[in-house]
Fold Copper acquisition factor BIM1-like domain-containing protein.
Amino acid sequence: MLFPAQRGPIPNDILVKSGADTCLVIKDPPCGGAEAEDPKVSFTAGNNATVDIQKNLDHFYSQNPGSWEVFLWDGGSSGKSVAKFADSSDFKTLDNKAVTVMIPSDAGKGKAILQLIYTTNNPNAPAMFYQCADVMIN
């Protein structure tokens, strides 16, 4: 996740190096074990927001295409889906995509987490990749 910036260090070559270690986050949902950070971005409840993502390594599987989904965790025991789209052969390694998400009008105010899950459905790849960004909801 490029914007808001995902948790943890983002190497300078992330936009040009496929298979970067910082993108190989496949354990410990919801955030791959990455520690929480202070929010650097604010969103307003009831408004659209843009999340910029990168497909760092293509795992598209034509027999059973996977998906990308963004969740908002605002203090509850589960995240709310705020955007979802199917993986496709047109979204390739190192491609970037701007995804419009709707921040629910009933989202709790204060610190929250945007979680991105890439579900590959590819038997030759990890099942899921997790990235999180810490945000503030106004």
User: Anything to note?
Assistant: The chain has no helices and seven strands. The chain has a mean pLDDT of 88. The CA atoms of residues 111 and 136 lie 5 Å apart.
